[in-house]
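Appendix C reproduces, verbatim, an entry submitted by the partner laboratory led by Prof. M.T., so that reviewers can inspect both the input and the predicted structure.
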Amino acid sequence: MEQPARSIWLGSLDVMAAVDQGALGAFGRRVLVLCGLIIMIDGFDVQVITYVAPVLTKALGIDRSMLGPVFSSGLVGTMLGALILAPLADRMGRKRVLCGCILLFGLCSLGTITAARIETLMAWRFLSGLGLGGATPIAVAFAAEFCPARIRATAVMIVYTGFAVGAGGGGLLAAQMIPALGWTSVFVLGGIAPLVLLAAVMLLLPDSMSDLARRGRADLLARTLGQLVPGISADPTAPIRLGEREAGFPVKRLFAEGRTPRTIMLWIMFFTNILSLYFMVSWFPTLAHASGLELSDALRAAAMIQVGSIAGTLSLALLVRRFDTFTVMSFGYLGGAIALVLAAFAGGSVGYFTAIAFLAGFFVIGTQTGANGVSALIYPASMRPTGVGWALGIGRTGSILGPSLGGMLIALDWPTRDLFVAAAVPAVVAALSAFALSRLLRRSAEVRDAVGALP
């Protein structure tokens, strides 16, 4: 059985054990804030296309059913970025690949404003998605690496609420910016912000300790550890000894040493709920507008999805410290399915739509956000970017199918009520998968060691 906390030795000092037993100081909090900002911009950029969707149909002269491929093109990019760029970070260096991903999606967001045809818009969204898909799992791995074990799960979940802050804040900004400045203004903001953040990441984010150990940089490893765990004595000239698994690994290790059942269940859980999630968030403003809401009301109601998701994630972060993690998630996914069914009866009521949007965000996205964080902890530290990246990548195949499926059903003249009921079905499957995963993980000493305070 692998012991993730005992994989890097600096002389006689167990580096990861020292981190796990330490306190979260100013240096660690800085890492978490930077990771949260990266994920926040990810949330803004992923969702911004849904907020401009009602305007794009007029600007590009297309039918609303044609927006499905536009939504999906960016999500194809995020899937490939998670599957390809995140594992690449374990070989080329996490900070280096992370900075490249931020640069890519910042420049491509700016490029989006040049789109005058749907094909060009799809190309820019695809390239932006590549950067986003690579950046998020690497940021999650950074957050997990620089946290003590006893607060790791909760801290990573809180960091991941940055996605909802970016997505929800984007809705509020879009409601003000689009009428005043046009649809291109939100993409200008979505391009400039990551480029500013890139400078901060290059200056303030340390190199991954795993990367420093693989490169043999004992001096930098000792300095980073000293900043992260004040008062610790680390010899910058001591030899580095890596655990057997730290030197690199193929993706097939996700299925090695008894990890196959948990990997399969995790992928099914991610795929089904993310399909439901993106079906909902991609079409919610358009369907709410079609139901009779004014565009500004539809955008504000859609923004409440993200407000609910923040509340859901924070609630989950508290609950998993008292109850079995994936059992809690199972009930969360089930609550999401119920909320989507209730959305089918919203009609044209602004208040009802807003309340249901909050509940749907609380359960559907809030639970998934928690899963995104905890998934970093069910694999050894050396393989977290790949474990998270592939879970998100497989899940994002659902994010591709969700918007496209919505477009197909709209083209078939499905009523709004039936669309929301259809979106609830995969959430039920996710609930069953999470329950099965909880049973599998109860027997895993490896996961108990990695998660620390979780039951």
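DSSP finds 16 helices and three strands in the chain. Additional entries are available on request from the coordinating office.
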